[in-house]
Design brief:
The protein has 170 residues and is mostly helical. It contains eight helices and no strands. The protein has helices at 4-11, 21-51, 56-82, 94-120, 124-127, 138-144, 147-156, 163-168. The longest helix is centred in the first third of the chain and has 31 residues, at 21-51. It is elongated.
């Protein structure tokens, strides 16, 4: 069995070598993030008209920027350490300075994004929901539509934020 220290040695964060896991995990993460962005854009384009009242683009950009910046910035900091642009100091190693830089940048970004989130995800837009032809409760669904009819109407209807609708779907 592999010990945790042996597994960590095989992963070797920040070390881009063919015999270490970091390079492969970074590549898989990059591919995964690229696919998720691609399919989110496809979803947005397919539902753009229905989602327009909820102004989803700024919300999408706020959430994805967190993932985008932290991932690419982390790789950038690793590159700065490996290229010896970030060097050892008297108190810290280059790797520790890279971690310090990454954590500081993320902290500043999270502060700025928290302010942005306050305006992009304002509660008032959820109070002023556009009128929706969807029933508001599960009992309304069963009394007005069959499940199949509801699915057919929900495809072309604005998105409802009512939790009872989500529970009522199969």
């Amino acid at each position: 069995a592999q010990t945790p220290s042996k597994v960590q040695e095989l992963y070797d964060e920040g070390n881009v070598r063919i015999d270490r896991g970091f390079m492969y995990i970074a590549a898989i993460s990059n591919i995964s993030i690229s696919f998720s962005l691609y399919y989110l854009v496809l979803f947005y384009r397919a539902t753009e008209e229905n989602l327009r009242p909820y102004n989803p683009l700024p919300k999408f950009l706020c959430i994805k920027s967190i993932i985008f910046f932290s991932f690419w910035q982390g790789l950038g900091v690793v590159a700065l350490v490996k290229l010896r642009i970030i060097e050892d100091s008297r108190a810290f190693s280059a790797e520790e300075l890279g971690i310090l830089l990454q954590n500081t940048l993320i902290s500043v970004e999270m502060f700025l994004l928290s302010i942005t989130h306050r305006y992009v995800f304002d509660y008032q837009s959820f109070l002023r929901r556009p009128s929706s032809p969807l029933p508001s409760t599960t009992s309304d669904i069963s009394s007005t539509n069959t499940r199949e009819e509801h699915r057919a109407t929900s495809v072309s209807s604005p998105v409802s934020l009512s939790p009872s609708i989500v529970v009522g779907r199969s």
